[in-house]
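Hi L.,

You mentioned the student needs an example of a multi-chain input paired with its predicted structure. This one should do, with 611 residues in total across all chains.
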Amino acid sequence: MFEVRIHGRGGQGVVTATEMLSVAAFEEGRHAQAFPSFGSERTGAPVVAFCRIDDKEIRLREPIMQPDALIIQDPTLLHQINVFAGLKPEGYVLLNTHHSFESIGLGDFAKTLRPERLCTLPATELGLKHVGRPIPNVPLLAGFAALSGIIRLESVIKAINEKFSGKVAEGNVNAATEAYALVKKEMEERAHA
Amino acid sequence: MLKQTEGSKAVAEAIALCRPEVICAYPISPQTHIVEALGEMVKSGELPKCEFINVESEFAAMSVAIGSSAAGARSYTATASQGLLFMVEAVYNASGLGLPIVMTVANRAIGAPINIWNDHSDSLSQRDSGWMQLFAETNQEAVDLHIQAFKLAEELSMPIMVCMDGFILTHAFERVDIPSQEQVDAYLPPFDPRQMLDPAEPISIGAMVGPEAFMEVKYLAHAKQLQALELIPQLAAEFKQTFGRDSGGLVRTYRADDAETMIVAMGSVLGTIKDVVDEMREQGHKVGVLGIISYRPFPLQQVREALVNCKRFLVLEKSLAVGMGGIVATDVRMAVRGTGLKGYTAIAGLGGRPIPKTSLHKLFLEAEQESLEPVTFVDLDWDAVNKQLERERQNRHSGPIAENMLHDKGMSTAAKFG
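Structure written out for the whole complex:
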């Protein structure tokens, strides 16, 4: 079983992101379970949502406390809550920022993890550029596909087209495609560095 | 069709396939996406020959359902928590009048303190209301139980609550097989009411009944629930024939054949329990599971048969009879009376407290060793409780408990995970 926890703020599409991740996994014939951390929903408040992916039926209903991957939609959360709580040492981290882990003071922390499983992505900028709104969730999902290989970009695109239509769907597909390419490029550059 | 969808959305689709004629709901929290989605389907014409009635309260929601059901319309509503409490007078009337209304209860806690999260306090508070109550373990089962519920309710002319864990199921995206209209039509015949208000043949429904007949009318409600004990397994078997999967029934066991310790529970927590039991089985512990699907009527005989060969059982329930202990556990103990079996009660998950596997491992091992107290409160913060008790001993003006507790625990805990 692969467990993903997504942190963000109310209004950033955190819950939608886990739902779309589960749809993408389903599209690949896998079992998936997405659920929010059930709280009062307020714009700007910290929000957590979860997604489990497995090849067999998922029966477990506890919150994800030891994730295999973290997607952090808002870097300001790093100062507010311990978003890394319980992350497995082999875990993946995708952080929404145009900075590097080093430049935002996470260099030492990053050294405790596997470097090829960490990445940052300017997802808010990609959302603005392609969809016209500062919503980072879809680009981060595509970035996560590139970083982890747990799901394919095509499946993310299918999930986008199931959730959105028309221009919004088109913009999100473009954002996802660019995000995927950016993370792939970053990973390749690092592999050759 | 197999799809990845939200529990509430899946249930809305299932309800639509059952061709309801009246849906009434009060569209404010505590309400789920179920009636919202149904409202959209009625408006778009996707759900024809159905009237969606936006009522002014939960009390009105049930009152309208009573009226529409008495007029011969297949009637549906959904509620939870305080909403269910607000409609209670009408809830008893629906069952007392024998009207086959189907209602989803997206199980949630009851305040005060204000809490929107999951436990089973709401529908269990209506234990004796005369409604049948079926509990779903997964969203697939929630879909399937709703389809069975209309058939069961209408055959007996008694109302039924289909209970599914609020948030944990209603807001979860998972794989659900939504049946076709043809399948549902083949399984569920059109509503043929046993009693109906018809201007062409006027009758009255709802007579005042004095001491000369009241007990008989009440006994007949009981007799119908006893009939339901026969009918529920039949409907589940017919369901399997039409839809090809096991769903519903009275109880369901898991790895119970040689189990010495049996864990009894209702609803979605059964999934987590099964995972824990699998892990314990690998370590050689003889643990099994009894899931109760039909809480009302309570299947005394089936529960007894499922437990009689074990050495001890633990009832894990998301409900608390304040001043007494377990609610489900009381019924389970009734089922095994005279067997001498050791029984334990664990209260867990109140107000949405997560029920993690680690806590269940510890609990089940203690049950196996018979080292548990008769009633255990899973993951209760005893330090916080004792601090407040001490405060009350020290100071008569000890203040409001909920506020003290939040203060002691640090308000930020509430925000930590959302």
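You could point out the following to them. Residues 412-418 of chain B have pLDDT under 50 and may be disordered. Chain B touches chain A through 30 residues (CB under 8 Å).

Best wishes,
N.
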